[in-house]
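Try this one yourself first.
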């Protein structure tokens, strides 16, 4: 389904394993006029993507139990959904971040700025490439 044909607000997938950050990011996405799809694991993110393709995504790089967002990022790339990375684990995950090659907004960052950028990816059709400036 193309973004232009979807009715209603843009849907933003948020993959974040920290409950308070997920909740805060969800509220920020709502404040931007979008519908958040909050998930805390890779499997839930992949299921959400398959159930109803989001319009954009915010991905935490390092998740619990040794998981990373890489499989989700690859799936989003396959189906052409723009996304950005939101991570505080820059030192340990630098190689992975470089391999994913998407815009990175380092933690801590204001949730409203991250949400605003994610919503702008929908409007611009941007891939979230690193050349795009973070707020």
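Now uncover the answer:
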């Amino acid at each position: 389904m193309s973004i232009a044909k979807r009715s209603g607000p843009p849907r933003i997938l948020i993959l974040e394993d920290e409950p308070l950050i997920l909740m805060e990011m969800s509220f920020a996405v709502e404040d931007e006029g979008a519908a958040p799809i909050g998930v805390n694991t890779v499997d839930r993110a992949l299921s959400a993507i398959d159930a109803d393709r989001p319009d954009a995504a915010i991905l935490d790089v390092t998740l619990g139990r040794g998981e990373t967002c890489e499989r989700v990022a690859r799936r989003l790339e396959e189906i052409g959904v723009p996304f950005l990375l939101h991570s505080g684990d820059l030192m340990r995950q630098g190689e992975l971040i470089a391999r994913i090659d998407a815009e990175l907004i380092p933690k801590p960052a204001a949730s409203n700025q991250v949400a605003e950028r994610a919503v702008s990816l929908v409007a611009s059709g941007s891939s979230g490439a690193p050349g795009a400036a973070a707020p």
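Discussion: The longest strand covers residues 11-15. Residues 111-124 form the longest helix (14 residues).
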